Prior knowledge:
There is one protein chain. With 301 residues, this protein is of the alpha/beta class. It has helices at 55-61, 77-87, 101-115, 122-128, 133-147, 159-169, 180-188, 192-204, 206-221, 225-233, 244-268, 286-292, and strands at residues 6-7, 23-27, 35-40, 64-67, 153-154, 173-176, 271-276, 296-299. The strands form two sheets. It has a six-stranded mixed β-sheet, with helices on both faces. A two-stranded antiparallel ribbon has the order 1-5.
Amino acid sequence: MKRRFTFLLLMGACIFGANAQLLYKISGKGLAKPSYIIGTYHFCPDTFVDSIPGLRDAMHATEAVYGELVNDSMMQSAVLQEMRKALSMPEGKTFTSLYTDEEMGRINAFLTKHMGADFTNPMVAQQLGTLTPAALSTTMTALLCMQKQGGQLDATRTIDMFFQNWGKENGRKIGGLETLAFQVKMLFTRPLDRQAQVFLCMVDNEDFNDKLLDLMLGGYFKQDITKIEESINLKLNNSCDDTPEERADLIDNRNADWLTKMPAIMKAQPTLFAVGAGHLVGEKGVLALLRKAGYAVESVR
Length: 301
């Protein structure tokens, strides 16, 4: 996990829009001091921190840093073993066994376009053939993001990693709203036939994926939360879309679970929560749930 990865990253979109807002203050309901919540993005460098108005002040005003999970948990051998298991095909099965020859032709064309190689290459087949479709889908999503961006990003110095690293260096309490084992199970253990279908949807709908990434990347780097919400709600209106149950598992139920934990955390000490920006938006988003729970939530500009 300490290996360094280089990603391409777009920095030319760091222009503030009229709806610029990623950082929010949480107060009221008996809190002695306010807490804060910042929306993060996996492919954003830690240098972007200083582009977010009021963030440094919020960091210094809090005594704890909570993420979706504790980043250091990713180093635990038992968790890493479970992760490898979740990302690997069951014994006796391979990635290609899930698809027809015609479907593999489409997949190979997609991989060649974006990776320069495909399953007809024995080395590629050996390396990728044991991955589940969900694992390969995650890999390709990252690659497509890279191709949208220009510059470099060290995966050990992303905005996701920054806050807990800063917190440790500055004596803050570090915590997580979930465990890595939970996230791995949630993200990578859908039934294989559904995983196969979703990956093929990625292959067959490049224009849609291109639009989605433009909305998400542009929305985040412009700090426009309305665009982030638009990207999350973008649909093909067919079986490629998340089912209501899948959407609930990925976002809504997790948001509701976090709201059972956040009040006690904020009461104990003023806290900076750093979670994926997609969790902030919508009627079932964390911001709306905090307001429904009686807290005052206001954007920091």
